[in-house]
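[recover] target loaded
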């Protein structure tokens, strides 16, 4: 299964709160990210969750605890029991711990986001590319400096960069990858078949080859020279038609003048 993810990273600073919810629309899945070493970022999950539900309804959400590598030095700052309780409280799909630095569970996170998007497949316009290719808009949201940008870059570039810049407003990246068919649950495969059938039925005119011929086939059937000749011929025909129409008008006017002249002569000849 081919997947194209449009990865959106929304800045976590408070000054950007006024427009964050605008980007929740049309999203297929969301990764709600917090920093495992900063309890305040975990406490703010409720705010993000409520914004998401108010803007996008029952969209799939995966909770992401990032910077798992810091546990080695700091220990468990946020008790796992507390995290699982939050997952159950908000009925989140699952919880994944990641480390962009050590590339731990990064690919798994985005694979899971793609799979939950398939499980919730509508599909919307633009998501269905082909029977085995889908395109999804995916968001990572959370407080500033929790590692959203690092996760996206680690997934797309397969490396961690020490150069760190806070996201200003919004960051965007597109990534293509494949999920082996054997990794897709049967439930997902059934949903895909049903959704594609419904989508094609609803928008069948877009997928009828006879109604939307390929440009290459048009070129094969109608060579460029022939098209030019036909166009030239049409132009000449138009000119001929215009000239003929003009000539008819002149002839009709001339006949009218002759008839009027004859009538005047006859009138003066008989009634003088």
């Amino acid at each position: 299964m081919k997947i194209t993810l449009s990865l959106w990273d929304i800045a976590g600073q408070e000054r950007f709160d006024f427009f964050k919810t605008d980007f929740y629309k049309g999203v297929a899945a969301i990764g709600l990210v917090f920093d495992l070493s900063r309890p305040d970022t975990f406490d703010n999950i409720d705010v993000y969750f409520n914004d998401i539900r108010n803007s996008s309804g029952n969209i799939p959400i995966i909770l992401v605890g990032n910077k798992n590598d810091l546990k080695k030095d700091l220990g468990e700052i946020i008790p796992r029991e507390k995290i699982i309780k939050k997952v159950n409280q908000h009925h989140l799909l699952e919880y994944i711990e990641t480390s962009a630095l050590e590339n731990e569970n990064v690919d798994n996170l985005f694979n899971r986001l793609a799979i939950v998007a398939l499980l919730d497949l509508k599909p919307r316009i633009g998501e269905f590319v082909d029977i085995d290719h889908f395109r999804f808009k995916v968001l990572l949201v959370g407080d500033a400096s929790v590692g959203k940008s690092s996760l996206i870059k680690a997934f797309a570039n397969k490396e961690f960069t020490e150069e760190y810049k806070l996201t200003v407003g919004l960051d965007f990246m597109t990534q293509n990858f494949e999920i082996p068919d054997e990794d897709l649950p049967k439930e997902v495969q059934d949903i895909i078949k049903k959704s594609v059938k419904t989508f094609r039925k609803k928008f069948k005119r877009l997928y009828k080859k006879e109604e939307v011929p390929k440009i290459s086939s048009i070129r094969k059937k109608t060579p460029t020279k022939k098209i030019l000749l036909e166009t030239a011929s049409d132009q000449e025909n138009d000119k001929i038609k215009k000239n003929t129409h003009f000539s008819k008008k002149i002839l009709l006017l001339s006949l009218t003048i002759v008839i009027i002249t004859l009538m005047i002569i006859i009138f003066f000849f008989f009634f003088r």
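[recover] notes: The radius of gyration is 34 Å.
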